[in-house]
Backbone:
């Protein structure tokens, strides 16, 4: 056998005659494809291991001896010399078929200007080929005859086509970054491909991957992509599309297995199509054009999203941006590459959805402070003194509980009670009467009255402001009537911190009565189970049932009014 023959077969019996061979024949045999056919009766297990060790040791010795023959001074643009192939072989072991053994990896040094590796065509047992950082323009001849090939790294070359060779079915991982590739091409034959890296090429369109049903990792960094297409229903778990010219996140909707997505350094301003990515845990959108916090709401249903990067986006300029995102995306553990502290999550909740007690305390302090600057006045609601505060009846309950129906029925049947309407900025309904159901004002008017210290309490519910003004209360008190006030539980929390001591009645309706916000019932039920929060709770299946339960409470409040006025008269007499 001559030294130029890349394929040689050695039986176990011939190992003893190896010393009789010439140096060239021995080098060709041991460093060619290093194939050893192991017959079933040729040797026992111990003999096989000894044979492999013997061949491997001989190969290493010959490689070291031949290393001196390599002319490193003449490196440049040149094809791979078949005589030098043995120096770059590694990982001696058993072939995938199990019936042969040989070298499984070829790793060529970087930066040598290699222009061709066609002489590798005969090395059929190779499973890994690494020829990165050379001057290769094609891999067709070299890699098309390797049925066991699993991994290829040909990055930093001059390749113009993606997988321009007849790839074997076992091919799993391919790296072709930093080449001259402008199109992915039809990869229907590579249906078992698992990882494809095409960074730093000239690709402007994603196409040809529809049959790659095992592709879980795809990287197309630093290309010329303007949109996301051609990825429908692929089993991708990791997708890198950063440093492109992409303007929209549309096209990702069907990637239901995607866990990590990098879209940084693009031109994306609107987030769409991300909601279906239910297992997405890592999203990088840094250096884009996301400007509005509402755009981020697209991510609120991603239950597994824990790492989000929006660094270098206009949205960061919004006031309380970081706390706003933390509040909306409570599962985050990292935002803009910074690990979230537990204190930040608590602060976000206190800012955007504080506990009722916190809201009530802040509200009470604000209105008490505003009252300091109001000109003192003798008020009917305070003339009874701190020991006997002016009586009032507060009806509370979720929307649809019937509290206003009960109020109207009570004041129409008992002239000792009168409606004390609250202010609101919400739109007036057709059936509502301004000044009776509510006092309807604009946002600006409401804010002005707050600044003037005209409210005992205010709160925002469902996006609209509500408040109980001192003037509305005084108007009823000046007529010696008992104010009946209908408010939500947020107002109750604040009123409990004032000098007022009304009777708080929770109108608990049947579940079927609740209309727009049935979840509010849970808030009330939680407080109803807190001893002493509500003075009374009334139940009923109909309005008459609730009203009959309310009457004894109203009579008790009326009795308190009589006692308060009697005490007042005694003080003045």
Residues:
């Amino acid at each position: 056998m001559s030294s130029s023959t890349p394929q040689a077969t050695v039986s176990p019996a011939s190992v003893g005659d190896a010393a009789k061979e010439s140096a060239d024949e021995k080098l060709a045999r041991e460093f060619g494809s290093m194939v050893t056919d192991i017959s079933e009766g040729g040797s026992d297990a111990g003999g096989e291991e000894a044979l492999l060790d013997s061949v491997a040791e001989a190969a290493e010795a010959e490689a070291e001896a031949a290393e001196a023959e390599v002319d490193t001074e003449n490196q440049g643009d040149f094809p791979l010399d078949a005589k030098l192939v043995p120096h770059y072989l590694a990982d001696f072991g058993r072939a995938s078929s199990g019936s042969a053994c040989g070298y499984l990896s070829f790793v060529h040094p970087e930066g040598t200007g290699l222009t061709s590796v066609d002489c590798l065509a005969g090395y059929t047992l190779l499973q890994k080929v690494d020829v990165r950082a050379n001057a290769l323009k094609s891999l067709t001849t070299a890699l098309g005859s390797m049925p066991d090939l699993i991994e290829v790294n040909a990055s930093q070359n001059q390749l113009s086509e993606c997988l321009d060779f007849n790839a074997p079915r076992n091919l799993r991982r391919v790296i072709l970054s930093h080449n001259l590739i402008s199109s992915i091409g039809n990869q229907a034959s590579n249906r078992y491909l698992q990882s494809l890296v095409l960074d730093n090429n000239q690709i402007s369109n994603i196409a040809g991957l529809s049959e790659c049903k095992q592709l879980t990792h795809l990287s197309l960094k630093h290309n010329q992509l303007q949109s996301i297409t051609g990825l429908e229903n692929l089993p991708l778990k990791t997708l890198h599309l950063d440093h492109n010219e992409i303007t929209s996140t549309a096209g990702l909707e069907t990637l239901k297995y995607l866990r990590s997505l990098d879209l940084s350094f693009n031109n994306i301003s609107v987030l769409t199509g991300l909601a279906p990515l239910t297992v997405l845990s890592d999203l990088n959108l840094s250096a884009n054009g996301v400007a509005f916090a509402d755009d981020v709401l697209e991510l609120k249903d991603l239950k597994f999203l824990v790492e989000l990067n929006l660094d270098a986006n206009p949205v960061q300029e919004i006031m309380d941006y970081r706390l706003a995102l933390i509040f909306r995306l409570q599962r985050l553990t990292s935002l803009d590459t910074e690990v979230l502290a537990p204190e930040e999550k608590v602060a976000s909740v206190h800012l955007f959805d504080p506990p009722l007690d916190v809201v009530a305390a802040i509200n009470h302090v604000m209105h008490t402070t505003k009252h300091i600057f109001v000109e003192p006045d003798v008020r009917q609601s305070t003339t009874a003194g701190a020991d006997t505060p002016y009586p009032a009846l507060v009806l509370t309950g979720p929307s649809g509980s019937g509290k206003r129906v009960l109020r109207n029925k009570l004041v129409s049947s008992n002239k000792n009670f009168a409606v004390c309407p609250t202010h609101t900025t919400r739109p007036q309904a057709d059936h509502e009467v301004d000044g009776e159901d509510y006092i309807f004002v604009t946002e600006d008017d409401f804010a002005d009255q707050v600044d003037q210290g005209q409210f005992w309490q205010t709160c925002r519910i469902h996006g609209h402001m509500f408040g109980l003004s001192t003037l509305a209360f005084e108007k009823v008190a000046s007529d010696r009537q008992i104010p009946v006030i209908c408010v939500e539980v947020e107002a109750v929390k604040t009123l409990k911190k004032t000098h007022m001591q009304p009777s708080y009645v929770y109108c608990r309706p049947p579940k079927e009565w609740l209309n727009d916000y049935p979840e509010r019932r849970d808030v009330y039920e939680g407080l109803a189970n807190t001893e002493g929060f509500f003075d009374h709770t009334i139940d009923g299946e109909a309005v008459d049932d609730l009203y009959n339960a309310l009457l004894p409470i109203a009579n008790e409040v009326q009795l308190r009014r009589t006692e308060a006025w009697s005490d007042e008269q005694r003080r003045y007499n």
In short: Residues 103 and 508 are 81 Å apart (CA to CA). The chain has a mean pLDDT of 82. Residues 356-572 form a domain with the Rossmann fold fold (CATH 3.40.50.300).
